[in-house]
Structure formats: C-alpha cells, structure tokens
Design a protein that fits this description.
The structure is a homotetramer of 234-residue chains. Chain A has 234 residues and is an alpha+beta fold. Chain A contains ten helices and four strands; from the N terminus they run βααβαβαααβαααα. Chain A has two domains: 163 residues, Gyrase A, domain 2, CATH 3.30.1360.170; 57 residues, no CATH class. Helices cover 44% and strands 13% of the residues of chain A.
C-alpha cells in the first residue's frame, strides 16, 4: 500500500455557508434568509476580509472529512495531537495485522543498502508478531513489537478554521515530511471544493509573508501553488 | 418575528458517513473504500450498536448547521454554554436595534394584564434605547437597557455526537421551555436527514428509560415521537 | 455592588511548571525529575523563547480561577463565548433577584440626565420583575424583563495559553470597555503570580508590535505596563 | 526504566474550590466570598449531590498535572486521544534514543522463551536505529524502525471532570492493561489530594453499579478500593 488521502464527505457549498454566517454578525438580515442574495463576488470579498483580519469563527461552520490509508503510526501520533478534530482509526487491538506494510522514509529508501536492512528488520518484526500471536499472546500485546513505521488507516474530520491552523503548522518545511505530504493532499482536496476559503492557506511564509519559526528553514514558500506543487513520493 | 429554526447546511448522507467511519475501527477494510459495500441494513445495525454501547466518537464526523431567528438572549446565553459547537451571532454592538421584538414567556402571555404590563415595559425600554442612541451614546452601550427578552439571530453548528448530548440535556422537561422548543425543532430537522443517527435521541427517560435528574419531573417521555409532538408556541 | 475580580485558585509555581513541561519535550530528562535543576534564569530564557516562537502548548499545564462579581450579562455573554475555559455562573432561573443592581456604561454615567433616565428604567424593570414574580410567574420567566445591564456573578477558569489568547483579543482597545476592564484585572492578578508567563501578554500591539485588526484604533499600547495602568472605573 | 507516574502540580484545596464554585450557581452569595463559610461537611454533601446527579461542570475548575516515565508509545497514542487535556511529550524527532528501553506486555514477560525472543528483536531494532543514525539518517526517520513498545515520557494535565470521564473509560477491565495501570496510579494520586472529588470515581460498575459495555467483562469491580488495589506490575 502507499499513502492515499481521499475526501469522504464535506459540507456542501462551503464558501457560501461561511460567507452567509459571517454576514449575519454584522448586518440586519434574518438568519433563515441568509443564503439568499449572496452573490459570488460579495462572498469572495467578505471571506478575504475575514482571513486578513483573523476573524476565523465563521469558518467553523463547514467541515471536511478525509479517509486515509497507508500512513505510519508515527504520523497518526502527530496527527491526533490536533484536538479540535475528530478521528476514527483502525484498531491494532482488534484487527489482526496481515503482511508487513510500512512507510519507508525517503532518507532510507534512497540508499539501497539501508533500505534493505530496514525492510529486513520489518520482516523480522512481523515474524515475531506472528509467532507471538500463534503462541497465544493477544493481538493487542503482540503489536508492541511492530515498528512505528507500520501502516494504519484513519478517518479525520476538521472544520475549516482548524484546517487553516493545521495547514499553518504542518505545511511548514520544518514539519516532518510524512505529515507535510498528508497535509498537502488535504489542502489540495479541500481547496478544490472551497476555493475561496482555502485561497490563502498554508504556512506563515505564504499566508502572512513572514516566518514565525524560531529557526527559519531559510527557503520559504511564496505562494499556495508552490506548496501544492511540492509533492513528496514515498 | 417569532421563533424560526432552519437547517442551513449538513454533511450529506450522514447515516452512511458515521457507519463507514465506525466500520474502519473494527475491520480490515481500507479507509478509501469505506462507503462501498455498506448496505442500509448493516448500517442500521451498526449505528444501533454504537448508540447502545455509548461508542459515540464516529458520530463526530457529521455536522448540522442551524439558522435561528426570534430567540431571546436568555436562550442564546444558555445555548452558547455548549462549548463543542460553533456560533455566529448577530452583534448588538454593530447592528442598530429597530422596533421592539421580544420573546414573551407563555406564563406571561397567557394572562392579558401581565402581558400588557410586560409589553409596556418593553416599549419603554426601547424608547430609552432610542433616546440614548440619539443622544450620542454608542449602540453597544445603549443596549444595556434592553431587556433579556430581546430577540437575536444565530447560526449554530454541532456534530451529531454533541447534538445527542445537547438533546439529552435540553429536551428534558426540566430544561427551560425556550431552549427546549429550540432543541425540539433541531431534532426534528436533523432526524429527517439522519433517521438512523437520531432514532434514539432525547432526554435520558427516552434514551435509557431512566431519569438521571436529582429531582425528576415526575412525568417522563417514553418515545422520541412524543418528544417531537410536544410543540410549544410562543 | 461594583465590579470585583479576585483570584480564587491557581496552579502553584506556574512559571516553573510551564518551563519544566517544555524542557521535557526537547531534552533527555525524566519527567519525574523535571522540576529539579531548573534554575530561575534558565526558566526565564525558556519561557521567553516559547512565547516568541509561538510554541504555546506547555502553557496549558497551569490554570487560573477567577471569582467575579458585579459584571453585566452583556459582559458574561461575551465572556462565555471563549470555549477553552470553564464557567460556573449564578443562575437567574433559581436565584431570586433582590434590589436592582446594574452596570452603568460610562458613556451614560457621565451625563446626569441620561443616567437618571437609565436608572429610572432599571427601577421600573425591576418593579415589573417583582410584580410578575408576586403574580405567580416563575423567576426564570420574570427575568425576561430585566435589562442586559443586570449584574451577575461568575467563576472562570482558563489555562495560561487560553489566557494569552483571551488577553490578545479582549485587551485590544476595540474590545468593549467592560470586558476590557475584566481582562485587565485578570492579567494584573495572574501576572503577580506568574511574572515570566505573563511578561509579554496583551493585545497584538504590545506582544508583536503590530496591530492585526482590520481597522486599527490608531492609538496602540506600547507596553504591558501601559495596558495595566489603563484602569476604567464603572 | 519502569513505569513511573507522579503528581507534578495540582490546584490547591481542590475539594473546596469545586464546592465553592457549585455553590455560586444556586445561592445568593458573592463570588469573591465563596470560600468563606464552607464547612467540610457541607462541601462533602454538595460534591456527592453533584456527582450523583451528573452536574459535572464545577469539577472543571481544578486540574491535576502528572509526570510520567516508562510508558510505551502504544499507551501514549491511546492517551492523547483524550482531547480535553494538555500534553507535553518527549520528542523522538529531536532527542536521540539511548539504550533500548521498552515496555514488555505481561502476556509476553511471563513466558521465558517469548520474552527472550521479544527482547532480542528489541535489541536488533535498536541496532538498526543506531546504524541508520550513524549512516546519516535523521533521528526523526531512523525511529521508524523502533518498536511500538519503546518507552516515552509525557506530562499530562486534566481537570477533575475529564479525569472522571477518563477513569470511567480507562479503569474498565476491558481497557488495555497498560493504560489501566497508568489510570490507576493517576486516581491514587489525585484521590489523596481530593478525597471528596474522587470518592466515587472509576468504571461504570463502581460509579453506577451497572456496566455500560456492549460485552461485559463478567467480573465487575464493586468499590473504588478494589480498583486501587488491582495493581499491575510490568
């Protein structure tokens, strides 16, 4: 298996829902007629204003749900640290692990000898897992011997405000490559459905033109397009 | 104006999305093919199992957004105490209040003399508000004289897990009548779109057959249908 | 009554707890010996680094609990919108309101005629409340006629990360005067107990030297001391 | 190393703070004089009432911070799924892993042959980790080969409401043994400081006398003391 990120569900007409909710706050319009009379141009102006001034709460009204396969438990351990989100992850307590399926870091994959050594260890770990299970050790205990690289599957829901925050942290070049690639694909998928909301998304270098890290990467992105084009295969 | 609650947006196919996410946790299926091969009967069984055993996390993957007009600030002050939700409310700082529009509690409305006295006070409060604004007092300060009953408008998003929690508290007969009626309408709207998810929703008397309040109302509901039929006009 | 904000409880040695937690992340030290060997100078350097680089999660390990009297329900409606916090508020459903006790906005208080008109309305509203209660209307319904200015009491707990966020929004000169004064007192109390944590707290103009508002107030603060000296009596 | 859980910090006088906050909601007392006149007997009655009727919000005003060493990343991956909590975890991205230090599940430890095989694999994984690091692979990538059992260190803060929820789930006999033992130690430490708050804490079998699991363990606890005595060494 290799990394796969798909959009399982999302709030329909996301740009319109956010613009309508924001409009309620500042004008004398009834909530129930909000979506009427919002033309596209006005919505775009309004969303741009919200993003620039940091008034992010209307972005919470729309959410995106991603289905992900083939990411490591290193990556999901980082991912689930984002608490304003919802997760359903495949359980290693209940599901028997089949053949070895692991993520190989590019820094290892690119060196044939290291890669061989790595894969050999993965196979040995898996053989031990199988032996333990066959000896009567519960699956939930046998998995303690599996490596962090072991692949997992997860469904993730975040609203658009949290996605902006998540993209800010995880698309930064100082984030780890695996979660960066996951974030990149999430942004590509979400932006297709909500171009206005995610027009200005990504790390601080892109959004505000100014790095916030203590130690900068020295090679900042300049546009969202550049972020999206920075594909990492593994 | 009178109370109006409408569904502004919701995650499409909510029953299916929750069932698919739950299925990932316990079976060896890829996340990206989750929605395939889920028949309706299996989904229903699965959701019923989740609700009965209290495994509520998959219900977080779907959300409902309600647009509300004509509720009092008494009610929204209670509403916004639910923190696992998102709100956009019409601002009394920026929007000039027009004619007096207030909620009249049924216990007052049903007595002609009390109602008259109440409405008279509302009018006087509003006259003072107008006078203050005309005297140069900022809108945000003048509103300090408006009564709690003053109507407001709000957009509310909750996911299905939080909705279950909210319905449990706010459809109880010991909750205040105004937020109960708001909750009743929310349940009616959500249940229409997600019949499996909200098949067993409402106060503890309905969901578990057992009151959890320290002092019971003495007259519990027995079915969701009964909850939904208990309309309050105001 | 007039506004009163006191510190009801807080995590002891807050500066030290935050510094120790942060230190765990980046160095090979056991969690259980964290507080040993942290000298004050090192802690200060570390906290300064965290604040500057925006690595705020260690600040969540310490919390402050404030007891507040004499603030209006306008103010608490704004306050409870901060969802990463805990609240216990005096209930108008259960507690009978005694004599009229209201917040008077400075813009009204400073004009004798307006103030008189305002207080007259407050008294009339309260007379109506009393009449309603004496006529058998439940307290929870009678209060619909009380003005927004009515005083309330609340206990509020926030951790230091959320406090930083709260101070950023609510000490801005564009925030409303009442919640600004509440926030100012909270900062003064918290800073006394945790000088390193709250050394650089307040609106963007103070923290980053750059306004983030769409429309600036035109008269930014320059230091925390200036923020703390900007007392508002009401 | 073996599991170590210590109390790093906590809100002083936790029983009193919760009781005082709860008292504010329902009686005509000023927030700033809350702690006066609360005798121990009244506090105990009040907390018991809150716990029995499920009015848990006052329990949010007090928090406990635990420093933990020697737990596996299997366990912390489960732990950090609790989102109403704060975490600072030792980073495998930045800290070089020294000698092999792993958790050995009891089901493996009790069988000498399995244990030997397990430890052998741990050593080989670590040798590969070292080789990778020495070959120039970044620490953050080399760790992909380390097993899930690898020990980590974490600081965890939860408020008393979340702790009740956490104990309800994680002290159940159907929870995994490692997080159960972590939870047992947390309860023992917290209960010593807040005997009234944690007098009735633990899984549903203890708190409500009735299992909520779809499949019961068949051997429920009956008292908190029994839960606390159920020590697991590993």
């Amino acid at each position: 298996m290799s990394l796969s990120v798909e959009l399982l569900a999302f709030t329909p007409e996301p740009d319109k829902v956010v613009a309508a909710s924001a409009r309620l706050c500042y004008s004398d319009v009834s909530a129930c007629s909000l979506k009427e009379g919002m033309d596209e141009r006005k919505s775009e102006k309004l969303l741009e204003h919200l993003l620039k001034s940091g008034h992010m709460s209307p972005f919470e009204h729309v959410a995106f749900t991603f289905a992900m396969d083939g990411l490591s438990r290193v990556c999901t351990h980082q991912l689930v640290r984002h608490r304003l989100a919802s997760y359903s992850q495949q359980s290693q307590r209940y599901v028997l692990m089949g053949n070895p399926q692991v993520v190989v870091p590019p820094s290892i994959a690119e060196d044939a000898a290291l890669r061989e050594r790595y894969m050999e260890m993965v196979q040995k770990s898996f053989d031990t897992y199988k032996l333990l299970v066959e000896s009567g050790v519960p699956k939930e205990d046998a998995r303690y011997i599996l490596p962090h690289s072991w692949e997992t599957r997860i469904v993730v829901t975040m609203n658009a405000r949290e996605l902006h925050h998540f993209f800010g942290l995880r698309l930064c070049k100082r984030a780890q490559w695996e979660i960066r690639e996951v974030a990149r694909r999430m942004l590509a998928l979400a932006r297709e459905k909500a171009p206005m909301i995610f027009n200005m998304a990504g790390p601080a270098c892109v959004v505000s033109g100014k790095c916030k890290e203590a130690t900068s990467c020295g090679n900042p992105y300049t546009t969202v397009e550049e972020v999206l084009a920075d594909v990492l295969d593994f």
